[in-house]
């Protein structure tokens, strides 16, 4: 289940349909983000801010285990946005199982 989600996220990275870091909140506000993934180890303030923005702008979000992010890339990050509908829908289906 998780392996297919990881593969889909990696494909999204290669297709340049992933937003990280400082560009994450503006992508939610512009609604270019179609799905936001937040690590459970993300800080409480950041987590609350991301969830509030997603709720306000009607962007779906999922809270995932940090191990998922470790499998995606060697880079360290706690949250990301998928900016393409097809990837977002497929990842949500895989994550919800």
TrEMBL record:
Residue span(s) of domain Ribosomal protein eL8/eL30/eS12/Gadd45: 7-65
Database matches in Pfam families: Ribosomal_L7Ae (PF01248)
Gene3D superfamilies noted in UniProt: 3.30.1330.30
Domain of life according to the entry: Bacteria
SUPFAM superfamilies noted in UniProt: L30e-like
InterPro entries, per database record: Ribosomal_eL30-like_sf, Ribosomal_eL8/eL30/eS12/Gad45
Protein name (Swiss-Prot/TrEMBL): Ribosomal protein eL8/eL30/eS12/Gadd45 domain-containing protein
